């Protein structure tokens, strides 16, 4: 839908503010490279991964993923010790969104280059938890946990708030496609179907608990977001939607049961997704689903 006058101006301002927060100061330059560079892609234009990752529901799914990922003490120790999630939260978000965009929509060459860069970073991230357990970001099991928490979150959010429903079998296809990226990063035994995803969560469940860093992350993301006070009012529905989509056991671990209601949480997620979609425009209008390049 095309607007004119004050409404169009408001939409443009909101879209610019959202985009630069997510993609960082170089976001427009990166977007041009991703979508305008000719060459084969990892995924075809009509791939479920493009539909899911190009949708506004990723805002809700991304926040859910951060909360869920924090429940693995070794993964959370790596984030707390090396990524600066409190000191530079927007920088971390921009790096994550850029990786997602290049591997989903970029050329095969750029996607592989991005994977190689992240693998090099992971090799340098290592240390010990507060109770002395060693961790390294390149550990295949930790990489698989981060992937399944992210894939499940994006898929869950899209199935709830996505612009175009997935067809029969497309959820499994999404998992196979996102799993390709995870395997390229070094993850192993990556789930290929919804059933395998459920089995993977059951396998990791004994390892998951809310460490001090995880509780601090939930506090930071839900009650102290790095946003101006006026903007926090708009952030609240998004946060409520993300919490509402968490498994019951995850909310209990993080001590955020009271954030979840049967009505406001899902409604908040729907309102937030529609607002983001209005500000940024649909995935189709941004060209994400019109790429006709070959796949690799």
Descriptors for this entry?
single chain; 296 residues; mainly alpha; two-stranded antiparallel sheet; 2 strands; 2% strand
User: How many separate domains make up the residues?
Assistant: 1
Give the rounded overall mean pLDDT.
Answer: 85
Spatial extent as radius of gyration: 18 Å
How far the N terminus sits from the C terminus, by CA atoms, comes to: 34 Å
Biggest sheet, in brief? Answer: 2 strands, antiparallel
In order across it, which strands form the biggest sheet? 1-2
Helix share of residues? 55-70%
Number of strands: 2
Helix tally equals 14
How do the helices and strands follow one another from N- to C-terminus? Answer: HHHHHHHEEHHHHHHH
Describe the structure.
The chain is mainly α and 296 residues long. The chain has one domain. Helix content is 65%, strand content 2%. It is built from 14 helices and two strands, in the order H-H-H-H-H-H-H-E-E-H-H-H-H-H-H-H. The protein has helices spanning 5-23, 27-36, 48-53, 58-69, 73-82, 89-105, 108-124, 140-161, 170-185, 194-204, 212-223, 229-244, 248-254, 264-280; strands at residues 126-128, 134-136. It has a two-stranded antiparallel ribbon with strand order 1-2. Helix 1 packs across helix 14, helix 8 (140-161) runs antiparallel to helix 9 and helix 8 (140-161) packs across helix 10. The radius of gyration is 18 Å and the shape is globular.
